[in-house]
Amino acid sequence: MDVADYVIPPSENNGMFVMTNFVRTNQRQSTCAENIELKQAICKNDNICSNQSFIPTMNGRWTGRCLFTPERNIVYQTRSVITSSKGLCEYAGWCPPEDGESSMMLVQGILNFTVFIKTFLEFPLFGVKTKNMVDNLKPCIFDPIHNKDCPIYTIDYMLNQAEDNSTERDLMLRYGGFINIKLHWDCNLDRNIKLCKPKYTFSRLDAPFHEKPFSVGFNFRYSSTWKQNEEHFRTLTKAYGLRFKVTISGNAGKFNFITLTLNIGSLIGIFGIATFVSDIIVLYISKKSGAYREHVFEKLQLETSLNETKDHSKLCVKKNEDQLLNDASNTDR
């Protein structure tokens, strides 16, 4: 048993996988030589295979034997009796091992495949539900000019929107990639909800191939097994493809009189505080706070001095009136 037997690709919510390339290997339970791409499996004798510690990339349990492949006689077009000096360690498991690059098979016409994006949206605060499909939806393909409300997109269109470089697009079809489909809703609920349409954007999430990341593309393995004449068989498939992830965001608004009055009251309060705050800034924080302070205080001092002058003049007039009254009374006597 290996990883392809007990790891089944799970179904994913808000996402999908489209296979664009694959490697298929028909296998049976037997013993055979290891994969030639595994450097640790290259051997010259049985001791190398029997003393080798566990390697995660082994295709099965090593038997301890070193298998030598006969060399072909170019002159007589027959297999030579003399074997090669280097062989491969033998393992017991599913045989033969998977042959990667040489047996890849691209899915023909994959760019013409279409994807129907079907989503539903709810704004619980307003009790409104909607969807990204028109009521009279007919078989269509999205076009930014003639069919912009159609939610059916071709793989070719989405791939071109997510990646501009043609070389990168070809590598994504060969080794897989990760594309995000984002739907953004911006709804004015004072209008008919049918007028609210999502905006679609496509972006690439995996690292570009020219950056040479540790793990490129997107792939996984799955297998189908059966038994015939007491012998176990399976078909191992390594699938490369485009993984699409759908994300939804949005906001909605509706007129509310109470909210309007609260906002107006808040603005009035802010304007009242603004005068107080501006005075503090000008008097204590501004570089020219001294000149502003002198101007304000000088004005207050001038008003105070004028008031004192008026009070003094009133006292003088009152004293003169009292003196005249006293002189008049003395004259009468």
- How many strands, which pairing sense, and closed or not: the largest β-sheet? 9 strands, mixed
Please state the oligomeric state of the protein chains shown.
single chain
Give the helix proportion (percent range): 25-40%
Please count the beta strands (DSSP E, at least 2 residues each): 15
**Spans with pLDDT under 50 lasting ≥5 residues?**
72-82
Rg result: 44 Å
Domain module count: 3
CATH topology of the largest domain: atp-gated p2x4 ion channel fold
Portion in beta strands: 25-35%
Please count the helical segments.
6
Structure description:
The chain is α+β, with helices and mostly antiparallel strands. It folds into three domains: 180 residues, atp-gated p2x4 ion channel domain (atp-gated p2x4 ion channel fold, Sandwich); 62 residues, no CATH class; 76 residues. Helix content is 30%, strand content 35%. The strands form four sheets. Strands 1, 2, 3, 6, 7, 12, 13, 14 and 15 form a nine-stranded mixed β-sheet that branches. Strands 4-5 form a two-stranded antiparallel ribbon. Helix 5 packs across helix 6. The radius of gyration is 44 Å and the shape is elongated.
